[in-house]
């Protein structure tokens, strides 16, 4: 039987990694360009509409938001990077929040980097992944908004992404194709998370 999300609730929102929950539950964080669909995907995964705040205007999520799932693991919604229209000061503030969290959060089991499946590889994303690599941060890639493309174009874009990454990486990270609109990839992504949670429990 497919493991499911039985409960999901908002716990805390803040800008300081030191104020994040201290119970040590594993957590899975979602990062990516502003407007890529992080918050929408969180709502699709949990099947709780409006749990994470979404907006068609970029720059909606500006804090580190913790959502407790099944009382034993967290989903973390992070602010988006690269929103050109906000001030330099605001961008710098967001960069500090993101970096502070990613580099210091011991409970972060895995980071999902979301990229829009409609676009060719963007420098801002590949540079961000290179930065993760330099800092030894494990990550997986999630392609979003797959409903907006036909299969041929979608496959072509994902292949071009693979080729681009292989210019710099010896191995590709796990990749998922998703849509919050029609739930593509939801079961696969949840299985991946549940399997990691199980392996953590076995290690203990
Ligand atoms: P910030 O918090 O601003 O960084 O953005 P975000 O990455 O959390 O994006 P959000 O989930 O708020 O979604 C941005 C816009 O994209 C919204 O208008 C969503 O309805 C739309 N959107 C998100 N995911 C999908 C998807 O899978 N398919 C389609 N068609 N639209 C999507
Ligand atoms: Mg958001």
Low-confidence stretches: none
Sketch the topology as an H/E string, one letter per element: EEHEEHEHEHEH
Strand order of the largest sheet: 1-3-4-2-5-6-7
**Broad structural category:** alpha/beta
Report the total helices: 5
Bound molecules: guanosine-5'-triphosphate, magnesium ion
Overall radius of gyration: 16 Å
Q: How big a fraction of the residues is strand?
A: 15-25%
For the largest beta-sheet, the strand count, sense and barrel status come to: 7 strands, mixed
Helix content: 25-40%
Characterization of the model:
The chain has helices at 38-46, 88-104, 123-134, 151-166, 186-203; strands at 8-14, 27-32, 64-69, 73-77, 108-116, 139-144, 175-177. It has a seven-stranded mixed β-sheet, sandwiched between helices. The model has no long low-confidence stretch (mean pLDDT 93). The chain starts with 7 loop residues before the first strand and ends with a helix. With 204 residues, it is α/β, with parallel strands linked by helices. Bound molecules: guanosine-5'-triphosphate (GTP) and magnesium ion (MG).
